[in-house]
Amino acid sequence: MGVSVLDVVRARAAEGSVPGARRDPYRLGLAIEGGGSRGTYSSGMAVELERRGLTSVFDDVYGSSMGAITGAWLLSGKAEHGASFWWHPDVLPNVIRPRAALRRKPVVDLEFLMNEVYQRWAGLDFDGVLANPVRLHPIGTDADTGAAVDLAPHLRDAETLKLALRGSAGLPLLAGPLVRLGGRRLLDGGLTEPIPFHSALRDGCTHVLVLRTRRADERPQQPPRVENLAVTAFLRRTAPATLPAWRGRPERRRTDDEQLAGSEALTQVLVPPGAPDVSRLAVDPALLRRAFDLGASAMATAFEAGR
Fold first, then answer.
1. Was domain 5-305 assigned CATH 3.40.1090.10?
2. Cα separation of 155 and 128, whole Å?
3. Residue pLDDT, tens place only, 149-163
4. Which candidate, 111, 152, 150, 148, places its Cα nearest to that of 135?
5. Which of 5, 49, 111, 209 has its CA at a distance of 20 to 30 angstroms from the CA of residue 72?
6. Which is the catalytic residue, given 64, 65, 76, 168?
7. Active-site residue, 279 included
8. Is residue 102 pLDDT above 80, yes or no?
9. Which residues face 180 on adjacent strands?
10. CA-to-CA dists, residue 281 to 99, 155, 271, 278, angstroms
11. Percent of the chain having pLDDT more than 70?
């Protein structure tokens, strides 16, 4: 039996390992699942890593959709501060606005989230994220090819980082016009790689810790019929190459779950059975705080197991 993911984490933490001065032969990745407001779960997990001083044990951080935003907060050194805006009363009700669709406005206002909430209110240090020796890899979907794309090579400054995070989280139909970066039109990374451990393995990561936003007892399901029809129509008009990815999401989830459960190179931290359902567009502060706390507790339990 080889060295487990958590063994690598613990060993690096014990010796104070930092990027550029590793004593082991491994490349350790952190992969953070997205899912809109369900990201409160993986946000809690990431904050528990920060509380334990474990950010620097990783070599790369991969995130899809809201997972990319959580990764940015983690690499800024202020993940716990950033997470508090999940249940701030003036944030999500102004970011997620279902009635905006009646005015042909984005239901999920990512531009407001980046520029007003994260930059002006919360003070997310975008330049600090880029300066961190642990590299951030936001995963998006190329609207013209239907392929997952790692946006890390396009991160040059604060503005390109904000565009990458918006592009990675650009929910079809809900987030407004597609973001353009690096010559690509971008859609939500969750369309093609909702759990971005594949990119980590392709990049040569020998071990990957995967932070999930799904419960351990949750099974892949087709989206509701109305949502499926609306998103399919939108993609057919706007990004037809992504239609196979949209239609194949439940099967991809099943395949990912099987791979995550059967590989020594991958360790996933799952939301516990019986945890509350959190929809992608949830805004209830009490529910989101509860999800965050459960995510942090799940990470603590995983880290302490087997000691």
1. yes
2. 12
3. 999 999 999 999 999
4. 152
5. 5
6. 65
7. no
8. no
9. 185
10. 12, 28, 18, 8
11. 99
